[in-house]
Amino acid sequence: MVQIHHSACPLNCWDSCGFKVTVEEGKIKKVEGDTDHPITQGKICGRGRMLEQRANSKERLLYPLKKINNEFQQISWEQALSEIAEKLSFYKKQYGSTSVLHSHDYANSGLLTNLDSRFFNCYGGVTELTGSICWGSGIEAQTWDFGEAYSHDPDDLQNSKTIIVWGRNVARTNMHLFQKLQKAKKSGIRLLVIDPIYNATAKIADQYISIKPGFDGVLSVGIMKEIFRLQLEDQLFINKHTIGFNHLEDLLQSYSLSEISELCEVPEETITNLAKLYGDRPVSTLLGLGMQRYTNGGNTIRLIDALVAVSGNIGIPGGGANYANKQVGQSFDIHALGLPERKSNSRQFSMMKQAEAVLTAKDPEIKMIFVTCGNPLNQVPDTNIVSKAFASVDTLVVVDQFMTDTAILADYVLPAANVFETEDIYYSSMYHPYVNHGPKLVDPPGEAKPDLWIWTELAKRLGFGEDFDYDREEWIKIGLAPLNNKEITLNNLREQRFMELPVDKIPWEDRVFKTPSGKYEFYSASADKDGFDGAIKLALPKESKQNNPELAEKYPYTLLTIHPLRSNHSQHMHLFEKPPAVKVEVAVNIAKLKRLAEGDLVNVWNERGKITGVVSILKISHPNTINIDEGIWRKFGGPVNMLTSSAESDNRQGSTLYDCLVNIEKVN
Ligand SMILES: Nc1nc2c(c(=O)[nH]1)N[C@H]1C(S)=C(S)[C@@H](COP(=O)(O)OP(=O)(O)OC[C@H]3O[C@@H](n4cnc5c(=O)[nH]c(N)nc54)[C@H](O)[C@@H]3O)O[C@H]1N2
Ligand SMILES: Nc1nc2c(c(=O)[nH]1)N[C@H]1C(S)=C(S)[C@@H](COP(=O)(O)OP(=O)(O)OC[C@H]3O[C@@H](n4cnc5c(=O)[nH]c(N)nc54)[C@H](O)[C@@H]3O)O[C@H]1N2
Ligand code: SF4
Ligand SMILES: [Mo]
Predict the structure, then answer these.
(1) Scanning 183, 283, 318, 413, which has the fewest C-beta atoms within 10 Å of its C-beta?
(2) Residue span of the structural domain in which 239 resides
(3) pTM for the full model?
(4) Which protein residue's CA is at the shortest distance from atom 9 of ligand 2?
(5) In b/e form, how buried is each residue of 406-442, taking b as 16+ CB within 10 angstroms?
């Protein structure tokens, strides 16, 4: 019998779509967009549709596996759980609970799938990861400036005069925003794209501005200088609602416009025009995550925030420094679910430098690593060190749905259920304010189990079973408790499929900020308190000719490693009909200089590693730029993270994945 059900996309993505799913005889047959979902409107991307292949693939992990004499053997859940529980209690007793590292990312945005943190808190507290390779620098920067990282409602774009897409690959990564940009254009709203690569979003823009990778903060300084010269600033906002403006003023006076233009490689005239556009309010700035994955990433976002602030585009309809929308996740009772007060011990490793930290940890050393919802062997920078670190510990446990590059290294691999095989609710703190419901539609294949089942069973064996003694319905109700007075309950969600969360559509409209001063902070008191200089800096990428001329001589090209079109990171790569290949996209000037033609085989390398791939010439891009999409598995020639650096950004909360110089040569 064929049945159509609703569900939700679990993937780590801006759009958090609602699904319509065809189920036939206990199998997922087709995944489509929910036509009634206000954001999805019946359209989803290939990654969403391919969740059917992810569900039914012959490569799904079906049983718990244990590595014996270097080979995986199927074992029972009873054996897996009791051995892992035994090890967890042994390591805790012998070395302390922080001898266990919990390494994770956010591959599934389900509220209950992320209860792994509760498990490790109740266990006593482990070594946990801080910061985020994904968006960490920008979140910290906006927290310093505004007190929180909040975005305007998706439909508020229609109130803008100009929309600036600044380093967000909308057509590829945020398809429902792309539809809104098309609509805005039809209403006569101006659209500009600032990016080192002329991408599909740039194609529909009124103007494309090519920028040197990592130099967006410099451009922002230039635009602010011109805003003040032309007297287009919002003095009232600056005087009444901000502190520390004198620090910004000093910074703006330290550079001339021609110096700025030379540094960021954007013509002076373009900078002046941008100042005029910013002065003609309202302007909506849509920031992407690419430009904060640099050593100077935090300051870059702070400088763009400052531009939005001085031009009077904060708290007004059609404005905003739209980067992330943390108010979405803050709607739920994450504290009651996570129980952080249960941990009596804890230790923090930076997410970026987790591998180095594992290799050097003392008192206690890391004995065990537990990987959930992540594939660090592909996705964490400087793969060669990550491999070494993850291979070095006594016990590596990986919970996943497939035998990934990380799982291959494990001592125990536990098979996880997917979105269609268990009930959960889904949301994303990146973009829109809807929470979606995903019911259980089919049974998991083989002996695969929901992540939460694994935590519950381990908790029982470790003596804190009562902390996990709830069914899924009760768990969801705990998470939804703060929303009950808004009628957002599990029953209503089950019936209505998705509901809008009560978040501000125009953040900071009341001009009351969540900073220590309650004002917009050009000089951040939070930064100061954490031991940083609270003033914004004009900083440049670490791997640049300005900061490291010797390195730039050896490795003259910037390597970007942006997100792949058809895969969410590494998650779909093994499911394509034709195996993926490493495509090396090069700027025209590099192709000319190195005599590269389309289809040539090239090596791209630096001191950290080397990758081989096939040339594709970027028709329009900033000179001296190369891109290799991230996510490719080892067996297909990846991952590109063999070349990237594990250095932390200026505010220590983010990665520097794109702050990466390389050289390139044809393979003869
Ligand atoms: N298809 C697809 N969509 C995805 C994902 C995926 O894996 N695949 N992943 C999801 C996740 S987890 C995230 S975090 C988001 C990320 O969404 P985005 O921020 O849109 O994408 P990224 O690939 O991180 O960022 C790349 C963009 O930044 C530009 N860029 C790089 N360096 C600079 C710079 O210095 N200055 C400027 N101005 N631009 C720069 C790149 O050219 C590119 O256009 O996408 C989500 N959506
Ligand atoms: N070079 C480079 N590296 C990058 C980036 C970049 O732009 N360039 N982007 C960074 C960004 S923005 C991000 S967000 C990270 C993403 O990094 P990851 O989240 O590590 O990447 P994914 O490939 O999504 O891997 C997630 C793993 O979780 C598994 N999984 C999926 N659903 C479930 C589930 O329900 N339960 C369990 N237990 N497992 C599940 C998948 O099968 C997959 O193996 O990568 C970062 N790495
Ligand atoms: S990956 Fe993103 S755009 Fe694609 S279906 Fe999922 S939420 Fe929608
Ligand atoms: Mo991400």
Answers:
(1) 183
(2) 136-323
(3) 0.98
(4) 134
(5) bbebbbbbbbbbbbbbbbbbbbbbbbbbbbbbbbbbb
